[in-house]
Design a protein that fits this description.
CATH class of the largest domain: Mainly Beta
Order of helices and strands: EHHHEHEHEHHEEEEEEE
Structural class: alpha+beta
Distance between the termini: 44 Å
Helix content: 10-25%
Strand order of the largest sheet: 5-4-7-8
CATH topology of the largest domain: Hnrnp arginine n-methyltransferase1
Radius of gyration: 22 Å
Largest sheet: 4 strands, antiparallel
Number of helices: 7
CATH architecture of the largest domain: Distorted Sandwich
Amino acid sequence: MGEPDVSFFGCDGEDDKTSADYYFDSYSHFGIHEEMLKDVVRTKTYQNVIYRNKFLFQNKIVLDVGAGTGILSRFCAKAGAAHVYAVECSHIADMAKQIVETNGLPDGEVGDGVVLPDEASLYLTAIEDAEYKDDKIEFWNNVYGFDMSCIKKQAMMEPLVDTVDQKQIVTNCHILKTMDISKMVPGDASFTAPFKLIAERDDYIHAFVAYFDVSFTKCHKLMGFSTVKLGCYMTVAPNKKNPRDVDIMVKYSLSGRRCVVSRVQFYKMC
């Protein structure tokens, strides 16, 4: 048997941008794909899941949604898939087609199955990080002698994506929600979840940290990966104008030795 066909589909948009263009434009640049490919935990986990569970892919039709450079599609092809449909609506699809041709995977014509990964859990904890807060937030108080603190409001509304040293965690971890991805329907991505974090040492709390685990439960051996590096509520919902963005509301109360505070904070995750 020769290599299976891998078909790439692009989406030709109109001149007038829609909300989805925010997503398509950002994923057109190679830099974001470089970052994902260099995320060894993520990429190697997918590779191991596919190569070590070929029974899920051999002679099967595979749909790779949001294929990017097509790395996962090529993993599936190597695992024996009969045909792989790689769907990517940003312009990186042009590069993906070329990569397929360069690596000898032909571009051909393009039932019940499984969704991989099929389970995800979202967690929350809190950390101390005065140095990072000073660098990212308080920085705007004095920029070369000028007060730019008006930008702090914008900075406070944008969640940061970064790694966290385990030593900075000052509370327990609370699970917010577990989702069966294979059974999700429209609307399931919006939810409100109460949580309670308990300080485990005498320290300051500068930020909430959210992280998630994903699982591949259909494998012979359970596999997955984690992004883990106060009476409260968290509400999460796709943005109405751009569903790729996420609107987050955190309502929290804290009663500590040094301060008592009750606050509602809004974030927009782009």
